[in-house]
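Fold it.
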Amino acid sequence: MALILVTGAASGLGHDTAHALADDGHDVVVHVRNQGRLTDASRWKGALFGDLAEIDEIRDVARQAAAFGRFDAVIHNAGVLDSPDVITVNILAPYTLTALMAKPARLIYLSSSMHRTGSTDLRRLAFGTASYADTKLWVTALAFACASRWAGTVSHAVDPGWVPTRMGGRGAPDDLIAGHRTQAWLATGDDVIPPTGGYWYHRRIQAPHPAAGRADFQARLLEALADRTGVPLS
């Protein structure tokens, strides 16, 4: 059985992903914003607490994670849509955690079909003017950058679909159950092809924004993220 971390596991897709993995017998560590948001505590191998909208708390989440050693998989699920914290939560947090934590065997980053309208203008990162779509393009490129740079760690990006969570809204047309199955499969499955560097929607490979796979854009993004956070990606 695998040791797996799921960020943003208090509700929505993160909650469903964590429960699906625990149902399959895996040791699941959940991240939630604070202890008041932790439910079903007895189900989990452990819990990490911290607000991913705050850089100091992101670093503290990484410190807490170190107590569990090297994870078999980390699912970077936490995200926000319409919020002034969209840059910090959607891209600075997964980047910083990735850079500070021990390299897991598998990395899964939550993207969105909206990433295809995101901008490659990284001044938006520096100036704090990025949109949700921008951050999802950048986290997709981060997933591919890790796939190409880290031998021994596979890395994928996932579009979970427009599902009826609190973020997606009650009228969202996509399948809520299918929305978390791909993440769980990528974290534990042995039949994943391509084995790394995929962009997935409901367990099917999809074509991402062309910039996400470009080495030059990935390099510029990693440099911009290191400048913004003070944490380089080894």
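The chain has one domain: 3-229.
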